[in-house]
Amino acid sequence: MSEMSNKDDTLTPEIDAQDQMVKGSAWMTAGSIVSRILGAIYIIPWGIWFGSFFLQGNALYGKGYNIYSFFLIAAIAGIPSAIAKQVAHYNTLNEYGVGFRLYKHGLVLAGATGVICMLVLYFGAPVFDGGDPHVIPVLHSLAWAVLIIPVMSLSRGFFQGYQDMAPSAISQFVEQLARVLYMLITAYLIMRVWHGSWITAVSQSTFAACVGAIFGLLTLGVYYLRRRSLYRNLVANSNNEIVVPAKQLYQEILQQALPFIVLGAGITIFQLIDQFTFFKFMPSTGISNPVMLNDLFALFSVNANKLIMITVSLSSALAITAVPLLSEAFTRGDKKDISSQITNAVLLFEFVMLPSALGMAAIAHPLNILFYGVAHKGLAAAVLAFSSFMSIMLGLFSVTSAIMQGVSQNKRAVRYFLIGTAVKLLLQWPCIHFMGVFGPLVATMIGFIVANYFIMHWLNGEFGVDYAGIAKKTNGILSFSLIMCVIAYALVKIVSWLISHVMVVDSRVGSLLVIIFAVGIAGDFYVYMVLKTRLADTVLGARTERLRQLLRIK
């Protein structure tokens, strides 16, 4: 897409809000999905090169990344989303100059929090290792990324404040591509060429986060330079009636940002609870062998989580898009528009999340083998299938919490999340004791169900969510998704049986063939039905008519 078309699409105020949300979501979804897919596909060669150390290496990778993710969210401090929200707020008032000052002061804050959190993570690594000394070098390598990513994320928030989602999406892709390439190159050299330590290989794989961040930041810099003249014109033609002192700008950023830390870290906080309780609670089930516990931890917290986050990233993309749009409607005091946008966000979430989650559950067995091999293949497939169902609640929380932030209900959203966290903590031990490796997943799902219920209940009371309209369309989306799920599961069985006559099915090549047939046919069914019945029109708008023409669907 040309630069000029980007300007027209993202910076023209007359664009319909639903159309704007769909366009923004398309960019963010594309960037997020491609990045997540890259972040999952690398595991195939990475695992092959690690050989017998694969599950142990993946468990170590997951332990380090969970702690790093929390520090990264603390370093980012919710500033990017807060900047997006406040920039959108001042842009609505035609005060673009104030938005620019916000961005510059935000850079100072992001740089400061990055330095502080980087130092704490690096020198505090022995405290956060959870009793596993192998985690220390991994945390040391990840600390450098904490130094750079806050500034990069802040810049993405600035672009999003203009509903200009392309720079964020493309920089996200470039960041992930650079990260994956560095991971694969270093893993191959260390494990296959130099025959080095698997711990060193994992440490280099995590240092790849810093390499990716550098390339992502450079990409955003290029986009900023291209749009610099446009931004200068907007600032020059602002009302310039509002004068906000620097101190007040910092207060606005922090006031908006601090609740984002808790909400943005929501999924990570639940994963940290699992990481620091799973190894302590599992011996009550009769399993205490450290190697076996690491394998089980890798199955649900790393392997399955990496795949379900591909679908959860769909809802995260929607969440990011919703914040500035809702902020604009909230600034105008337009409750009807807020209610309409909440409905659009929920339906768009369901439209992509339900078929994605149910489809992943249907192909869990070949999908797990394709990415992770045949180790514990029966249990691993079951864990992945259950995680797929659970991911719906994780994705919904990403959307609902973003909606709350968009209507300036950050503290209330944090309160509801803390209630869900308390439920998770209360259920953690009994769930692990009676359900083993599935226990943490059950506790997580119930915790997010509770948080989502409180948020949606409040939104309905305040803005009158059109649940009747949502329910009617949800029934159609769910019905087609369930039928698609059944078709995919049946195809997995049938194609597996047919392939078994000529090759080993439970292999990466065999699993890939099964997935291609199952996803291709079942996915085509879902797309055909939502277009044929015009269900897609109510979610995506008039643009679906062109898609019907291309696919020759009447």
Task: Walk me through the structure.
- The chain is an all-alpha fold and 554 residues long.
- It has 22 helices and no strands.
- Helix 2 (17-41) packs parallel to helix 9, helix 4 crosses helix 8 (135-161) and helix 4 crosses helix 12 (266-281).
- The chain is globular, with a radius of gyration of 23 Å.
Shape: globular
Low-pLDDT stretches: 1-15
Determine the structural class based on helices, strands and strand pairing. mainly alpha
Strand content: under 5%
Pick out its properties.
554 residues; globular; mainly alpha; single chain; 22 helices
Quickly describe the structure.
The chain has 22 helices and no strands. With 554 residues, it is an all-alpha fold. It is globular and about 75 Å long.
Layout of secondary structure:
Blueprint: H1 3-11, H2 17-41, H3 43-50, H4 54-76, H5 79-92, H6 96-123, H7 125-128, H8 135-161, H9 166-193, H10 198-236, H11 246-264, H12 266-281, H13 290-332, H14 335-362, H15 364-372, H16 377-406, H17 410-435, H18 439-463, H19 467-499, H20 508-532, H21 535-540, H22 544-551
